[in-house]
Amino acid sequence: MFVKNAWYVAAWPREITNKPLARTILDEPVVLFRTTIGKAVALHDMCCHRALPLSLGSVVGDALQCGYHGYKYDASGACIDIPGQSKIPPHARVKVYPTVEKYHCLWIWMGEAEADLSKIPDIWWMDHRDWKPSTPDMAHLNCDYRLIADNVLDATHLTYVHPTTIGASSIVEFEPEITHTQNTVRISRWMLNRPPPPAYAKAGDFGNAHADRWAAVEYWAPACCVNFAGCVDVGFGGAGKDIKASPRRVELVAISLPTPETAGSCHYFFAFARAFKHDDPEMDRFFGPGMVKVFEEDFAILEAQQRMLEKYPAAPRVSTIYDRGPAMARRMLEKAVAAEQSGTR
Ligand code: FES
Ligand SMILES: [Fe+2]
To answer: Which residue has the CA at smallest separation from atom 4 of ligand 1?
Structure first.
């Protein structure tokens, strides 16, 4: 269940060096490396000679050399050297995947259609001076990547999965508003005049005071989700209010960019950006290792769910009003996959 003609995060740019990196993406083996001029290259990870994964070889100059008989491939995927033979067959090449570095991510295009730069998810917060980004290490999860959108689109789990950090029982007191376009779903709610969750109370110096809190999330097909979260002093929150006028403010986005590895596993890239306390090292820790701990609470849930879904795929399940948003996102994705497979996308 993958859309192939889309940009996915292949790696954080810091992961790509002159050591080959193997990563399976949408069920295809990919090898990633960086040339001497700093260009990140993604090739099919299988030598066209005797099928050894090229990731077991080494980067020599701007080429990737196979570790078996020494064939070398350039950044276009063409074989440029066969030791002991001067003539190189024209079909001696491997597939090259378009890549681009933007928003602190290395994006890869796996589909056959021409790579369309305008389709890179517009996660502009990662590159804006009012926002401070952080990109924790990717997490490899043994779960279907679609469970991640299900998870972040339903904020009612916060109360039970994250009770000591970003959870608060007031979430279900406030009905979410759901809107959508052809490729996006937005679910948002204000939680006015309630105790903020423990992590926000601390980050925003709210102490025991109540706050006006928001939690919104957008799904952008096929795989990106952006969570908007924060709180302000009571009276400064709610539709049409200027949250920036609040004396105290916690304001962040959490961006989920899961890249399918196989049908039952994914590479979960997630990033944070905050629009307050940029120069506070304690907040750097909070929105780095601290938020990773919060996400790890989800990882355990997601992998446990996957195990049950694999074991009991036909077991009946119940949906409630809070599943409307995730269900819309699933339908959107199914439509996109069907359209791509029938060639109408
Ligand atoms: S398998 Fe790669 S050079 Fe022979
Ligand atoms: Fe969560």
So the answer is: 69
Please report which ligand is nearest the Cα atom of 54.
1
Asked if 37 and 154 sit in the same domain, the reply is: no
Indicate which residue's Cα is closest to atom 1 of ligand 1. Answer: 50
Total number of domains in the chain: 2
Query: What is the rounded radius of gyration, in angstroms, for the C-alpha atoms of the chain?
Result: 22
Condensed to tens digits (0 to 9), the pLDDT of residues 143-172 reads 999 999 999 999 899 889 998 888 877 788
Ligand 1 centroid–CA 72 distance in Å is 9
pTM beyond 0.85, yes or no: yes
User: What is d(CA 340, CA 345) in angstroms, rounded to the nearest whole number?
Assistant: 5
What CATH number is given to the structural domain containing 11?
2.102.10.10
79-115 pLDDT tens trace: 999 999 999 999 999 999 999 999 999 999 999 999 9
CA of 157 to the centre of ligand 2 (A): 6
Task: Answer yes or no: do 94 and 167 share one domain.
Answer: no
